[in-house]
Each structure stands twice: as C-alpha cells, then as structure tokens.
Q: What sequence folds into this?
C-alpha cells in the first residue's frame, strides 16, 4: 500500500530503528515509547488489523508472534515478563492501520490496561 506508513518502513523508505527482521516480519522501536522496551512487530505484507491477519491463513500470525517473542528475548524482558498488544480498531486506540504487535516490557505493567 503506497500510502501506508508501516509499508514505507518495511520498504526502508522511512527510517526506523530496526531491532529484528525475518523473511516475513520486521520489528522496530516505537517512536513514542511507553516502556523501556517498546517495539512494534509487523508482517511485511500489508494487513490492516489483527482480524485481517488472523484471516490471512498462511501462518503469518504465527510468524508475528514468534518474532514478538524473539524480540522480548533479545531485549532481555522475556524472563521478567512482557506484554504483546494488538490494538484493533479505533475504539481500542489503533491509529496505524497496518497490523502491528506492540511488545512492551522493562517496567512493571499494570492490569487492566487503560
Ligand atoms: P496504534 O495506536 O495503532 O496501536 O500504534 C501505533 C504506534 O505507532 C504508536 O505507538 C506510535 O507511537 C507508533 N508510530 C507512529 N508513527 C511512527 C513512526 O513513524 N515510526 C515509528 N517507529 N513508530 C511510529
Ligand atoms: Zn501497510
């Protein structure tokens, strides 16, 4: 999608601090971090939200989750605990409509989230 911010990051047309890359996924630091570790994991293929990713039916959701965990391990937050969040839809606070998992960690995370 030519007008999609995260497609442009995937294409390396817009800079981002990339922390992990696989054949089908990319992980980069959130520009406005909400925790010491705040990384976004996207499929390189454009899907607007988690519902569309779930429907992709080709193991892509699996790849995103595996990359999220790999990021947590590399960031050193896997042992202490981390959170993986898909804001899905405007009512849940989704603002960029290229599906992304937020990987958050490095501080105590309260529950329930706001
Ligand atoms: P959402 O609100 O859709 O769940 O999350 C979008 C996230 O993308 C936000 O946490 C926001 O800080 C992040 N973000 C927005 N624009 C950029 C950008 O240009 N680069 C990076 N690295 N993150 C961005
Ligand atoms: Zn996109």
A:
């Amino acid at each position: 999608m030519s007008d999609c911010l995260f497609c442009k990051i995937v294409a390396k047309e817009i800079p981002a601090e990339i922390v992990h890359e696989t054949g089908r996924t990319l992980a980069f630091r959130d520009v406005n971090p909400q925790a010491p570790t705040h990384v976004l994991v996207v499929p390189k293929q454009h899907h607007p939200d988690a519902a569309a990713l779930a429907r992709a039916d080709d193991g892509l959701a699996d790849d995103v989750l595996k990359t999220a965990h790999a990021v947590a391990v590399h960031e050193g937050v896997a042992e202490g605990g981390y959170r993986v969040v898909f804001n899905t839809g405007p009512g849940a606070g989704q603002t960029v409509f290229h599906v992304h998992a937020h990987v958050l960690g490095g501080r105590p995370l309260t529950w329930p989230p706001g």
